[in-house]
Write a structure and sequence with these properties.
About 10% of the residues lie in helices and about 50% in strands. The chain has about 150 residues and is mostly beta strands. Strands 1, 2, 3, 4, 5, 6, 7 and 8 form an 8-stranded antiparallel β-sheet that branches. The model has no long low-confidence stretch (mean pLDDT about 85). It has 1 helix and 8 strands. The chain is globular, with a radius of gyration of 18 Å. Strand 6 and strand 7 form a beta hairpin.
Length: about 150
């Protein structure tokens, strides 16, 4: 599975089911974490403790970098989704989404953090966190493009 420079992040402001994906070319880094909730179990008479493993919990964080005068539609779409608390479709792929064999997660997520930094110079930096949308009926899944 190609990674590194080939990895890409896509957004669809209508949700992950529609798949009108737009590549977030302004991403300078992103991290998708997936962790399953666990709970110890110990019934009377058991010889040892066990661990129950539950459903996965997904989160994505990253940073976007824009030129001050050209933030454009990507910035506005993300900002508007955060402000309206609406779900967006996210595809975190190993390479271009249309490349046969590319792999990645498809999820409906909501922005939980949208932090804008205006450093000196020509850039605007946006740090963000996305979490799985609990109200979404779309089941997150790991896909391989065929």
């Amino acid at each position: 599975m190609p990674l590194g420079d080939n990895a890409k992040l896509y957004i669809d402001v209508t949700g992950a089911e529609v798949t009108a994906w737009t590549e977030l070319t302004v991403i300078i880094d992103h991290t998708l974490s997936s962790e399953r909730v666990t709970a110890e179990s110990n019934c009377r008479g058991d010889a040892e403790k066990g661990v129950s493993v539950g459903k996965p919990m997904h989160a994505l964080s990253g940073t976007m970098l824009f030129k001050k005068s050209t933030a454009g539609t990507t910035y506005r779409a993300c900002r508007d989704a955060y402000n309206a608390n609406t779900s967006v479709g996210i595809a975190s792929m190993s390479e271009d989404i249309v490349t046969v064999g590319s792999e990645g997660w498809f999820l409906d997520m909501k922005f939980s953090k949208f932090e804008i930094s205006y450093p000196d110079g020509d850039n605007i930096s946006v740090s963000f966190d996305l979490v799985k949308d609990a109200d979404s009926t779309y089941a997150s899944n790991y896909n391989t493009t065929v």
